[in-house]
Amino acid sequence: MTLTRPFEIGRYEVTNEQWLEAGFELPARDFAVGTCRDAQCPISNINFFEAVAFANHYSELQCLEPCFELRECTGTFGSGSVCNRAGKSTPWAAT
Predict the structure, then answer these.
(1) What is the pTM of this model?
(2) What is the count of structural domains for the chain?
(3) Residue-by-residue pLDDT tens, the chain, 95 positions
(4) E strand or H helix at 72, and its extent?
(5) Residues 86, 71: contact at Cβ < 8 Å?
(6) Kind and range of the H or E run holding 50
(7) In the chain, how long is the greatest CA-to-CA distance?
(8) Domain-located, residue 49
């Protein structure tokens, strides 16, 4: 695979604080015993669609093109949202 555009990879996991700063709600789903709710703890109990929504939001903040397209979403990100259509936003070149 050939990378055809800029990208960024975080050095650390996304924290609860970063998740809240992006405008998303902390997950209200059942938490496992010992799940950390402190600001600097990694976000937990999110699904694929919620992770993709955060990645897209972060890309936009960094003036990068979002990698994914989410459509026909229901619910609130952080509270179990589901999207009926998800995919790459632009073609990626493969070699």
Answers:
(1) 0.73
(2) 1
(3) 677 766 778 899 999 899 988 888 887 665 555 567 788 888 888 888 888 889 888 888 888 888 788 888 888 777 777 888 777 665 544 44
(4) strand 68-74
(5) yes
(6) helix 48-61
(7) 45
(8) yes
